[in-house]
Prior knowledge:
The protein is of the alpha/beta class and 221 residues long. The protein has 8 helices and 11 strands.
Amino acid sequence: xxxxxxxxxxxxxxxxxxxxxxxxxxxxxxxxxxxxxxxxxxxxxxxxxxxxxxxxxxxxxxxxxxxxxxxxxxxxxxxxxxxxxxxxxxxxxxxxxxxxxxxxxxxxxxxxxxxxxxxxxxxxxxxxxxxxxxxxxxxxxxxxxxxxxxxxxxxxxxxxxxxxxxxxxxxxxxxxxxxxxxxxxxxxxxxxxxxxxxxxxxxxxxxxxxxxxxxxxxxxx
Length: 221
Ligand code: CA
């Protein structure tokens, strides 16, 4: 099971990685907010340990964005000592567990195990629309049971549309969920991505609503 560790203080990150690895999990460290946001929304992790104070994009913003775009990976938030407001904000933003700094590694691991236990009991449903099945936990997409290989961005786009199935998602909203820099935002890029997705899926699940955006219509099986 892979665990993403988002922490910009190298020493703490390494200590956590050591404990995580000692617990039998596979740690992966990211020290930058924007990279963390992208990584956590794109790769499949069993859980994420998230520090709130990060360069480029703060932890709370990352967490809110993940939850808004349908990323349901369990998140354990690291807060500053005594900062009760950070804990409240973290829980409001969708954190599953929090731990004030400084902490003992034993406690971190106990909380991580608790988060993982709860997550395994809360089986996250894969979503099927027509012939297409998307499993947010494994990041697998199949069409009629056959796996389709998508790039991280293609997966992310499809995941956002599936998460909001039944309603029109505008290009601007898709851009918000796909790109962190304004400079990358380009409506042609979204159109091109949609085109590639449609070709790969060979199934008519994404409909265009001219002037409004895109919609995945749930047939309601
Ligand atoms: Ca920090």
